[in-house]
Amino acid sequence: MGADPLADELREALGPEHVLVDRDVVAGYETDWTGRWTGTARFVVRPGSTSEVSRVMAACGERGVPVVVQGGNTGLVGGSVPRPGSSWREAAVVLSALRLSELGEVDAGAMQVTAGSGVTLAAWRGHARHADLDTPVDFASRDSATVGGAIATNAGGSRVVRFGTMRSQVAGIEAVLADGSVIGSLAGLPKETVGLHWPSVLAGSEGTLGVITAARLRLAPWFRQVATAMVATADIDAAVSLLARLRGELTCLDSIEIVLPEALELVAAHLSATPPVSGGGAYVLVECADHRDPVDELVAVLDGSDEVLDSAMSTDGPGRNRLIQFRDRITESIAASGVPLKLDVAVPPAALGELVHAARRTVDGVGGRLIAFGHLAEGNMHLNVLEPGNIGRITESVLATASRLGGTISAEHGIGLAKTPWLHLARSSAELSAAAAVRSALDPRGILNPGVLAPL
Ligand code: 2HG
Ligand code: ZN
Questions:
Q1: Is domain 5-96 annotated with CATH 3.30.43.10?
Q2: What is the pLDDT of residue 456?
């Protein structure tokens, strides 16, 4: 690599140690968590403040150099790594948000805290719990996934049934636009109607409209009494009818997840552990959390449900973790088995059976191993295919089926580079043109995450 005046300018602005050019070091930022998405970065910058982000964007904006924002690099759709196939001079600068890791003081009355976009979900949670509060969003990659990445993808996780997705947790936001200007507010006012609401504009924008630098985040009560149950049901339809019962009768429902038998077998083999329940066609992991002991309430509902073939319950930390690992560690067990095709889709819960049936037929037809699990209440299935026989055919068929069933092609992982060819299944051409107009108004040179969320 020859001299790079952009790198020189940013060394000057950020300090040489925060401009990474060593190819071995840069390589750690070039491939996503699945191993499926990989590209070449020009170099990596690690700004430590909003004003440093602003200087990075101004320098890149002036030269028209693309910028890919990256948090914990736990994305699954190629949304936060450089695009494949570009030479280093055309390649994107990776802007790592990990040094934007400041956490403000918890405001217990407002139930809010300000977090830098590089704060991990686990750190956000630890900080909230230190103040006797909790975070409303949680998912398995919590130790690496960042607040900024979760906002940018509008991530969901296991507590959406109770608190909604990440978008709902953002009371204020600060972001740097492509020209280096800073927008937003971290006041966190729950009521304000002054035109566009920047948290709503930026949530789900996948790094294409601006670089999120900090957010004012909502917190939740910390319900310390938790009951976790793993339930075997006959099939997906039985799980869905149990869902209706649980939602209707439980006041403290905190999460309700679904695991299909192949996924349970895979994770059990990976953990060398025997699942606590067996013989089902679909497994449901349900959690109730409250200030008071929720066990009686949960037991009463499960005992009165014909859908429950077998169940195991725990209320203490280690016992609950033993149950939860059969859901939380599926992604890890898939990664240990190969590079999967990941299809994160959602349909109305009543259509889940048909979705999975169709996906299974397609995968059986072209070859591959379907591992399905997800978030039952949102009808959100993570259809993972190991050794996929024909990636294009499987993707096309699953996404078209989800759309035909009244669902969506991405529920919580985003579109990234992976799903841009199928955007028409989820948005009309009028919507796509309107979104493109907003994007080019904020980023006229198209430097922010090119190729993500829209075909190049
Ligand atoms: C989860 O729910 C994550 O565990 C990852 O969204 C899903 O690996 C996946 O497909
Ligand atoms: Zn998920």
A1: yes
A2: 79
Query: What are the tens digits of pLDDT across the range 72-85?
Result: 999 999 999 998 87
Instruction: Tell how far the Cα of 372 is from the centroid of ligand 1, in angstroms.
Output: 10
pLDDT of residue 86: 67
The pick from 344, 370, 383, 398 for probing ligand 1's pocket by mutation, whose C-beta has the most ligand atoms within 8 angstroms, reads 344
User: Cα(101) to centroid of ligand 2, in Å?
Assistant: 24
**Residue 455: what pLDDT?**
81
* 112-221 has CATH 3.30.465.10 classification: yes
The pLDDT assigned to 88 comes to 60
Residue 89: per-residue pLDDT: 61
**CA–CA gap between residue 3 and residue 63 (Å, rounded):** 15
Instruction: Quickly name the fold that domain 338-415 has.
Output: Alpha-Beta Plaits (3.30.70)
Q: What CATH fold (topology level) applies to the domain 225-330?
A: Alpha-Beta Plaits (3.30.70)
User: How far is 10 from 124, CA to CA, in rounded Å?
Assistant: 29
Q: Which strands make up the sheet holding 380-386, listed edge to edge?
A: 310-314, 225-233, 282-290, 253-259, 369-375, 380-386, 341-346
Closest atom of ligand 1 to CA, residue 155:
6
DSSP element (H, E) containing 327: helix 317-328
At residue 128, does pLDDT exceed 70? yes
Helix, strand, or coil (residue 414)? coil
